[in-house]
Amino acid sequence: MSSLRLDNIYTDGMVVPANKPFKISGQAIRNTQVTLEVLDKTYSVKANEKGDWVIEIAPIPIQVTTNIKISSLDEFIVLKKVRTGTVILLTGQSNIEFKFRDDSEYQEQIAHLNLKNVYFYNVPQLEYQDDKITLPKDLETSKWQIANAETLWEMSDIGFWMIKKLHELNPDEVIGIVDCYKGGTSISSWVPESVLNSDNKLIDTFVKPFKIATTNKSKADYEQEFSDYNAAVEKHNTDLAKFQSENPKVSLSDAKDRVGHTPWPPPMTPTSYLRPNGLFHTMIEQVKNYVVDKVVWYQGENDAPNPDVYGTMLKGLIISWRKLFCDKSLPFYVVQLPGYFDEPKDSWAIIRQYQLEVTQNINDVHLISIADTGEKHNIHPTHKRIAGTRIGEIISGNGYDSTPYVYRQQIVGDKLILFVKAAGILSQKGKTEFLVQRNGTWVKQEVNAVGKIIAIDNAENITKIRYAYENYPTCTLFNEFLAPVAPFEMEIK
Fold first, then answer.
1. Ranges for the Sialate O-acetylesterase domain (predicted)?
2. 318 to each of 232, 332, 358, 424, 429, how far by Cα in Å?
């Protein structure tokens, strides 16, 4: 077995950021010299006591394709057809993991595919790694591959529609997508210990429950918990199948509304991928040395039971990832949750509010609202065109860097005026109503959009307002690119 190795993401055909320093890392015999050659330049570094090494390479211009040679002692590796372009990290849980092959438009899109210069890498979904750093034998490996009719079935559905729009806007741009996601996960799985231990509420919400669930239990205890869980899942599936056979004209969404949804999450164990900090170490740290241009974060569904701590978690995630990637200004694009009814009251609305607030309070963090999409009783819609296309439009840099949102308020006479960013002119789809709180009572009130401001009459005694503040909202305000004004709650001062 060769002693000179590269970290898994470094393969032939990879895409590295253009005009930006990037890194290549791997392992060699400890304390030996590692040399890298690219475009007539040579770099050298000594492997540390563990044999790990990282080499930083000076920026390479856009639209360059080259080979990179790495050598140590009498061994060498050649990375072939390394391209420069724009590198985007797609990350989160199941709705960004949702595969393009499961999209309702998959067959039609594949039949009329017109893509070039697009490449992607799926980070292996390593759930647990022991202290000996041994990898599971059944862990799927990955490599960089071109996005075409033979490979796109493996890509994120959101990712496909995003690159389709980017390609339409700039057909000659080389795009590299790093897919790093895992369905069913809380944001707590994606942050380091330092984030969870920084706040007592986070300790009470995530750290202590995990400790209780995994302490002083025998193998038989875990087996019994999983037996009970599997029985509950089997009963649910049986009940759902029975209901559907008796009601063949009822949609799956409505059937689940009657029968209930699949029980989740499964019981916690010390090695569960749902454990706090787990995927930060097993997946994000896999690619910590790979330099990216932008991060798209689409997650939050699994934090509906604890929405009040989501803002603290999201802020901690962004700061800790920027530290891990050694990029203090790494742009983040936070996808505001779509509509979905079957969660505790206002839990998704609360998470959307925190997603909005974090993007307003941290530099280079942008909001992409898809609250006008989603299905009432289906948490995994098969229509991702609108969401993915909107992400592509916004991260392209060709227009607004976010969807529209209210950023300022002002009382003028008896009117409350709300100012909207990322809009030239607002349009309304039907009647627009806000929830307005006066003297502790919430009432609906119709509002009007003029240009890029929103006017609310009779502003006296208003203390708080809400727009589309529901799990499954109705969005009626849009900018000229048909992007929705982000749902929000605001105190009136």
1. 274-384
2. 37, 8, 10, 29, 34
Q: How far is 295 from 84, CA to CA, in rounded Å?
A: 17
| Nearest residue to 467 via CA among 439, 487, 453, 440 | 487
Q: Give the pTM.
A: 0.94
pLDDT tens digits for range 424-458: 999 999 999 999 999 899 999 999 999 999 999 99
- Structure-token pair, residue 326: 């050694």
Q: How far apart are CA 46 and CA 35, in angstroms?
A: 9
215 DSSP assignment: S
CATH 2.60.40.10 range(s) for the chain read 5-181
DSSP labels, 251-287: -HHHHHHHH-PPP-SPPP-TT-TTSTTHHHHHTGGGG
Report how far apart, in Å, the C-alpha atoms of 174 and of each of 14, 20, 149, 221 are: 11, 14, 18, 52
Give how far Cα 194 sits from Cα of 97, 276, 307, Å: 26, 11, 20
Fold that domain 5-181 belongs to in CATH: Immunoglobulin-like (2.60.40)
